[in-house]
Amino acid sequence: MAGVCAAVAAARAGARTLLVERIGFLGGAATAAAVPQFMGWKTAAGGQVIGGIAQEIVDRLVASGGAHGFDWFTMSTGLRMDRLEFDPEVLKVVLDDMVIEAGATPLFHAWTAGAGCTDRRVTRVDVLTKSGMRSLAPQVVIDASGDLDLLHAAGCEMLPLDEDEALQPATLGFRMGPIDFAVLDALEPAQKSELARKGVEEQGLGRFALHYNRMPGTDDAWFNVTRIAVDGTDAVALSRAEMEGRRQALAAARFIARNVPGCGRAKLVALATQIGIRETRRIRGRVVVTEDDLRSGREYPDTVAQSAFPIDLHSRDGKVTRLERVGGEHHAYCVPLRALLPVSVDNALVAGRGISATHVAFAALRVMPTAMATGQAAGIAAALSSQGEGRVASVEFERVRQALLAGGAILG
C-alpha cells in the first residue's frame, strides 16, 4: 500500500514513475496477505489523522461496493478500535485504476535482483522480469518492499534488534463461510479470548485471540489467528513458513467450525496468497523514531505523516500481544521525513514497513494507514528531488509540506 501511494503521488507530481511489483497485482498485505482491514485511521476520540491518497482509496472502495465505511469494534483484548473492512479483490482493481490514471508505469512479476551504489547514490537497480533481466538507472528510488530488498542490496545500513528483541511472527489469513454474524458478533471479548485459548491448547489456533473481518456483502470472514515465527528475508525459512501457515490455517478452520458459535456451517473457502510479514528490516534513517517520541507526541519540523495506532507487539509463540494506546483519547504522534531518508545514500527513501524506528515504535508505525501516509510523502519528496540532482535531503521541506496539504494529507 505504501508503494502504490508513493507511485501515485510521484506520478501526479510530474515524475516519470516506474512501479515495480513482484507479483501480478498491487496491495501487498492488503491483498496478497489478505489483511482486509484498515485500522488506526483515527484517535481514540475519533479525530482523523490519515487523509490524502489513502482517503481516496477508501472513498473508491466504498463507491465500488468493496467496503461499507468505518466502524468501531472491541478487540478480544478489550481495546476499542476503528476499522474499515474491505474486499481485497475489489481493492486490486481500485489500485490498478489509480496507478494508471496517475500516469505511473506498472511492472508486474519483477524481482529486485541487485543494486549498485556510487558516491552515496543508488545508480543501478537490476530487476528480473518475465522478459529477462533489466538494468534501471533511476534518479531517485523509493523502497516500499517492506523487507527493504533494494536498499539492502545497495548496502544501506539497517537498524539491529537488541538482545532482548525478536522479529514479530507472521500470519497466514484464511477465509471461511457461511457464518451467522448475529451469533458470532454477539460474543463478549472474554468469550472470544477463552475460545482462542482453547484453540491454542488443542493446536488448532496459533494466537490467543479470535480476530476476523467480515467480507462486505457476504456471510464470509477472513480470520487472522495463525502464528509463524520466521525471518522473512531467509528464502528457505520463508518457504517452510508458507507451508506451516497453510497447515495452521486448515487446522484452525476445522477448530472454528467445531467450536465457535455461529460458525458451525462454515467451510474453508480460501487461503491468502502469501503469509503476512509483520517485521523484517528497518532502515537506519536520519532520525530514529522511539517509543518515547510516540508517547510524548514529539513534533518535528519536517513532519510528513501522523498516526494514532497503538503499540501492537506480538510474541513469536502467539501467547502474548502487547496492545497499548499511548497518550490520551485525542493523542496522535508524528513521522518526520528524515525517518524515511537512509543515512547511507542521498537519492533514496523508504516508505511503509521499514522506516527508521526502534523495535517498539515500529510496532505502532507498521500498519497500512500509516504506510499509505508515508508512501504519499515519499512520492512527493522523490518527485521534487528528481527535478534537481536527486538528493532528497536538499529539497526544501516547505515545498513537500505544501504539496502534501494540497493532496489532502493531514499533518496536525
Structural account:
By secondary structure, the chain is an alpha+beta fold. The chain has two domains: 291 residues, FAD/NAD(P)-binding domain, CATH 3.50.50.60; 98 residues, no CATH class. It is 31% helix and 19% strand. The protein contains eleven helices and 18 strands. The strands form seven sheets. The protein has a four-stranded antiparallel sheet with strand order 11-12-10-13, with helices on one face. α1 packs parallel to α10. The two termini are 22 Å apart. The mean pLDDT is 95.
Please tell me the overall pLDDT: 95
The CATH class of the largest domain, by name, is Alpha Beta
Binned strand content: 15-25%
CATH architecture of the largest domain: 3-Layer(bba) Sandwich
**CATH homologous superfamily grouping of the largest domain:** FAD/NAD(P)-binding domain
Fraction of residues in helix: 25-40%
End-to-end distance, in Å?
22 Å
**Sheet with the most strands?**
4 strands, antiparallel
Major sheet: arrangement of strands: 11-12-10-13
Fill in the CATH topology of the largest domain: FAD/NAD(P)-binding domain
Count of the domains:
2
The helix/strand order is HEEHEEHEEEEEHEHHEEHEHEEEEEHHH
- The class by helix and strand makeup works out as alpha+beta
Q: Count every beta strand, where a strand is a DSSP E run of 2 or more residues.
A: 18
